[in-house]
Write a structure and sequence with these properties.
Length: 120
Amino acid sequence: MRTLCAVVLVFEAIVIGLAIPIAINLEGADPAVAGGLWGGMALAALLLSGLQKHTWAHYAAWVLQAGFLFSSFMVTGAPLVAIVFVSLWVVGVIMGRRVDAIRAAHEERAEQEGAEVGGA
């Protein structure tokens, strides 16, 4: 799960970073606000992508998703992009948990077969 979530965060950081000049040039947003808010969010997404092995970082990334969704209303069209990334995040969590469960079951089965072969 953590790997899928980290990948989503990296791509999200790129998109958030690319939204800064759009907010400034097309929407007339204050450069300090757009750069500070979304630049900070892009940096946080990159940092959190590398820290996904920690449970707190995973929950912090949920907060980042909400922040991106709410702040996306600064730029026309950005809410759609935010919805796509929140959806990717949710799908990454769901599919990642399924993969983790399958992997754990496979490892458990391999251990049981190894014990049967070793004990026979």
